[in-house]
Design a protein that fits this description.
The chain has 281 residues and is of the alpha+beta class. Helix content is 39%, strand content 12%. The strands form 2 sheets. It has a 4-stranded mixed sheet with strand order 5-4-3-6, covered by helices on one side. A two-stranded antiparallel ribbon has the order 1-2. A hairpin with a 3-residue loop joins strand 1 and strand 2.
Length: 281
């Protein structure tokens, strides 16, 4: 039998019968409920009231019991709801499917549509986490889920249209990344360079930019943190040379530097200063 929560009327009757001295079994029989339901209700929703100046007692009061039950139900709903509350949830879905970014949605709620209303405020990071949490299209709002979509496709005898409600929310983002990448890409691991000479120990003539032929090397990392460019910058003339790197490794970087300097006369390639990147080990 499916469990049904006690109604306000049932709580009022229960309070009256308990004051009359009826047992939990008698109250359960009168309400058509299981005795454990009555016992649980009395245990969870009792309240303490003062009796006289220095005494108190525990009673079952129907208005307090109803209010406590409603509060628990709302807290449970809020905890399960994927985005703060139903209003924010509907708003975010509507604008995401309209091509808005989480930054724009959060800003519009904060500055335009619901300025100063805490009920409506949500940060962009929460929206991003919601999109990539796997809960976005699997909620009580009866949006199409992967299972229901698979069922529609397998049972369809003709052409079936995939609507916006069938698409995962990350497809509405501008970059359309199925998995979220960490902001700023991968962290570069610091490495110890053997026989390293500090930049502070280079000759004064190099530091003062008085002699042509002293360079500074660096690497420019590409979009996917795999390929890139090796650059050499001449400190006096601001001359710049670069070579493409298929992979940013120590061997590739050294090869690119040799290629750059091989095209220069000896007096134009006196020294080069590199940073502490792993490609320079």
């Amino acid at each position: 039998m499916r469990y049904k929560k006690l109604t306000k009327t049932e709580r009022e009757l229960l309070s009256q019968w308990k004051k009359e001295g009826l047992s939990n079994i008698q109250c359960a029989n009168r309400l058509g409920r299981h005795v454990s339901t009555i016992g649980r209700e009395l245990t969870r929703n009792k309240t303490r009231v003062n009796v006289g100046r220095n005494d108190w007692e525990i009673i079952y009061e129907p208005l307090h019991a109803q209010r406590a039950a409603d509060d628990r139900r709302q807290k449970a709903y809020d905890a399960k709801h994927p985005l703060k509350n139903p209003d924010v949830y509907s708003y975010v879905l509507r604008y995401l499917r309209g091509g808005w970014s989480p930054e724009q949605i959060s800003g519009r709620l904060r500055e335009v549509d619901h300025k100063g209303e805490s009920h409506w405020q949500i940060c962009m990071e929460t929206i991003y986490q919601f999109i990539y949490s796997g809960k976005s299209d699997k909620t009580r709002q009866e949006l199409a889920t992967e299972k229901t979509l698979d069922k529609r496709l397998s049972s369809s005898k003709g052409v079936i249209t995939i609507t916006d409600y069938d698409r995962p929310l990350w497809e509405f983002l501008r970059r359309k990344q199925k998995k979220r990448r960490k902001k700023g890409g991968r962290k570069v691991q610091r490495v110890r360079i053997p026989d390293r000479i500090s930049i502070h120990d280079r000759p004064a003539i190099v530091a003062r930019r008085k002699q042509f032929g002293h360079w500074e090397g660096d690497s420019i990392v590409g979009k996917f943190h795999i390929s890139g460019l090796h650059t050499e910058y001449e400190r006096v003339s601001s001359l710049l040379r670069f070579e493409y790197l298929i992979r940013i490794t120590a061997d590739e970087t050294a090869s690119a530097a040799r290629k750059i300097f091989s095209l220069l006369p000896a007096h134009a390639r006196l020294s080069t200063t590199l940073d502490n990147g792993s490609e320079n080990t």
